[in-house]
Amino acid sequence: MERKRILVVDDEERFAKFVKAALERTGAYEVRTETEAKRALATALAFKPDLIFMDVAMPELDGGDVAAQLSEKPTLKGVPIIFLTGAASSHEVSEGGGVIGGREFLAKPVSISDLTAAVERHLGPLTAA
Length: 129
Fold this sequence. Notes:
Distance between the termini: 6 Å
CATH class: Alpha Beta
Radius of gyration: 13 Å
């Protein structure tokens, strides 16, 4: 079975590596990271992810701008984007049903169980390769 592809766009390299390691440990996902928002579009076009985790606050371009660029590309238009933010607490995010501005959000710091649950909501139950 082919592993699902997940792209993590976050300028905090340590956090991006944490997410990558946590998801790849399941054996069900292939994860690529991008720490520069300006390169996220090119990385996504080359990698062809099934899901994208996107930091909101990044230098030069914010996550909303990057998400808009991704949504303009026919091959990426339907790819779910889950925003990650340190600007809202997990309580604030859950009060909004995990959705802010029509997009799913997870609050940083995020747990491995919250990451995998979000992936499973969009890509289906975990099945190791």
